[in-house]
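Sequence and fold:
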Amino acid sequence: MSFLSQLFGMQSATADVIKNMNVAEFKAAIQDKKVQLVDVRTPSEFGGGHIKKAINIDVFNSTAFEKGFEKYNKEAPVYVYCRSGARSMSAAKKLAKMGFTEVVNLKGGYSAWK
């Protein structure tokens, strides 16, 4: 298998795991359910406001990030968000590599939510 096919094959597998949702879709998906909702911003950003029932696991702290997700169900959807959607997409890719089967990213992040 060539380097490029390995690279693109991995991206395809990751793309199958990660879904992007706009605010309306994301709100509907997490409403009235016990979901795995994670804010991947820094603790200070989280302290400045967050989506109700979200847990904070900072994507910039690699050790805490991996340890924080150890207790999560890899077979159930994980909903992630950050300020604008970029860090949470990075977190979603990490989660896919960790074996999570469905990761949902909030398009536009918390900025779009407000």
DSSP finds six helices and five strands in the chain. Residues 1-6 have pLDDT under 50 and may be disordered. The helical segments are 3-17, 23-30, 43-47, 62-69, 86-97, 109-113.
